[in-house]
Amino acid sequence: xxxxxxxxxxxxxxxxxxVSFLTIFRLRRKDKANGxxxxxxxxxxxxxxxxxxxxxxxxxxAILALVFYIFNRFSxxxxxxLMSILFLFILTGGLHFDGLSDTVDGLFAYLxxxxxxxxxxxxxxxxxxxxxxxxxxxxxLIMWLAVNGINSGFxxxxxxxxxxxxxxxIVLLSYFxxxxxxxxxxxxxxxxxxxxxxFIAASVFTxxxxxxxxxxxxxxxxxxxxxxxLAAAFYxxxxxxxxxxxxxxxxxxxxxxVYMIALHGFYKIxx
Length: 271
What we know:
The chain has about 270 residues and is an all-alpha fold. Helices cover about 80% and strands about 0% of the residues.
């Protein structure tokens, strides 16, 4: 009995850690003996929480669905969907939006010059470039159009599941990538801390969640998104030797957009 309670507390603690990292909510348990957490302890806890990222994504999705429900009581569906998507920015504190912007800035700088140094410098620039800003705008437009596309039931299911896919992409890209010396930082925690057991657990969580809500339409859409992330992992490894934290954020936003575009089609066919 005691072992079961300890295990449950451990799982809950790791889930809270995942939610704390991915959102503005601060649910981490502090080490009272030390008055806080040391760097090593914090890294260990974050690493242990990675497998629960899809579950944290489901919580984010549930909040977005609730936001849509509230606004849709007195507003049209398109406006309510837009508020839900914009609330994602607030809920996550802009996390991953900056990764999308920085990575796109870096990619365009690299494509124009073929110089990796330009890529690194563009990503490290604290000021967002034109390419990055346009990428964020297009992300919002794509998500708004795709989520709002069919009926109210589809809207709720989309809002519930697309954050799951986005957070799973962190696990997926981390497992199949490494972080080069030039990129050492937060991304290293994920690329070095995502082991096979973590990858399998996150994959199982994602498959179960998507299938429960969207059956085969969700599974096929998730597969399309997964293939894109794997292609990105191959490209980043070939061109830059691996990924950093911004590239992981880039994968979150683009995988969500790819998932929603695919889901829009599969849902019509299979539902």
